[in-house]
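Quick one: structure for this chain?
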Amino acid sequence: MRLAVVSPFVDRRHGTERALAELLERLARVYHCEIHLYAQRVEDLALDRQVPGGPQKSGAIFWHKIPSVPGPHLLRFVWWLVMNSVCRGWDRRIRGISCELVLSPGINCLDADVVLVHAIFHRLQELAKEEDRETAGVGWLRRFHRRWYYALLTGLERRIYSNPKVGLACVSSRTAGQLEKYFGRGDARVIPNGVNAAQFSPAARLARRERTRVSRRFRDEDIVLLLIGNDWHNKGLPAILEALARLSDRPVKLLIVGNDAPTESRSMAKRLGVLERCVWEQSCADIMDAYAAADVYISPSREDSFGLPVAEAMACGLPVITSAFAGISSFVHDGTDSFVLRDPRDVESLAKLIRLLCEQEELRSRIGKAAAKTALEWTWESNAAAVWELVQEAGARKHFS
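Got it. Here's what it folds into:
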């Protein structure tokens, strides 16, 4: 099958994009698809030399580079939306590259046949409004831009997700519930993300632990908390910093990995007196380096469709703290292989959990071992098989419609 896949970028440094890279490799290698990837940037993915038109080449991934422009998110997104459509139309009419289906991870085009839903912007818009009320009078230009950005995205969600001809898959039952709530789509397929067990494992983490901690100047007695991702406010960083301030008597450090601007969180850390206990780093392809340095993964998310770093941390044998507002919470067992906060803003409960894990090495070990066992249930092979089944069904519907 020849597939057009539309995504702004693909790499191994971001959860959604890492999930897409794993999927595309398997659709090409295992299911022999010819994939035409329309993206502005592609990293860490084996690509084939472009062959214009002609017979299909099974098991190949071709990259069609979409030009990008600088500017605010709203402008860049509109440009992306228009240009990927123009480029695909050019390839179809001029170069003879006709794809049977269009697959999109999220809202990237208006003609997708299958959408893999990783975030619901209707819900994120509600959270943004809450944040605006909490920070009234600060960053009015940013709030104005974000309001119009979310207005566009939610409008596109209504148009695309409400269309019964579009096949929908989502990464958790939480996201499936939101698709039904906002768009009346009770038929979305729940397909959880996977974990590469060959890359993320307790043995791999422990083999790199000493070197990664020395490079960051962590001491043996330090308990290192780790948070990975973007949109740190939504991932629960403010609550983590407040909890850290309540643990001044414990040797707790916080490693924060992501591409958000750290200015706001640094200011909060300084105000709370925990700045010297925090380390900020940019995300990189070798994310295992961060897991190896950690003792506990912590992400009390206000909203998260799945939470791939939580799954990867569990695969590495790390005890994790997540929240009931993260999609992965429906796949784990609170108190057995993880800890799930009912309220991600409950700083007191979060601080108690961290203190408990700091004081009880046996608890960290027991929860971490159970976490690694649970994570073995999530594989990219099962993820790809389920998506391939959905793609075949969409192809049959389109053929006979």
